[in-house]
Amino acid sequence: MTTNRTFTMIKPDAVAEGHSGAIIKIIEEAGFRIVAIKKVHLTKERAGQFYAVHQERPFYDGLTTYMSSGPIIPMILEKDNAVADFRKLIGATNPAQAEEGTIRKQFAKSVESNAIHGSDSDENAKIESDFFFAGLEQF
Ligand code: IDP
User: Fold this and answer.
1) How many structural domains comprise the chain?
2) Where is this chain primarily localised (predicted)?
């Protein structure tokens, strides 16, 4: 295992409901170091660019409306085996299928409003990190 990085965002539903602090506590207690963090409010267009890979999917319009409905907290995280371990920590996309103890099991409301994002590969972690953070903000 090598130390590497992943990208996450606390999504609008979880930020609006005041779960950011609890979620960040879980992330840090699981051994992830916060490399970069901020709070931003995406336009629908920017949300659409982030999720461009899903643009042919039926849920794309709802997803980009949801992701631009309020502020989010993007973060870059570092840990051994970061991408896979973080996906395990957040749980399945659909909270109904997420394991006990996962962040989505605790905080997600639905398959769309599912509280948090986690990159699915090292390559996407880098692309997604660079979407939100300039090089000088990543340390
Ligand atoms: P992931 O976030 O667990 O990697 P993806 O399949 O990449 O899941 O989907 C991106 C996001 O799109 C999900 O986190 C969720 O917010 C939303 N989404 C995925 N599938 C559905 C669906 O079937 N209906 C509504 N929203 C969905």
Assistant:
1) 1
2) cytoplasm
Range of the domain at 84: 3-40+72-137
CA distance linking residue 90 with residue 17, whole number of Å? 18
Q: What is the pLDDT of residues 14-46, one digit of tens each?
A: 999 999 999 999 999 999 999 999 999 999 999
Indicate the Cα dihedral angle 17, 19, 20, 22, nearest 10°: 170
Q: Per the annotation, does 8 bind a ligand?
A: no
Dihedral sign of CA atoms 123, 77, 90, 39 in order:
negative
* Residues in contact with ligand 1 (CB, 6 Å cut-off): 59, 63, 93, 111-112, 114, 117, 120
112 alpha carbon to ligand 1 midpoint, in Å? 6
Q: Ligand 1 pocket check: which of 68, 93, 102, 116 to mutate, most ligand atoms within 8 Å of Cβ?
A: 93
Q: What is the ipTM of this complex?
A: 0.97
54 is catalytic: no
Can you give the pTM of this predicted structure? 0.96
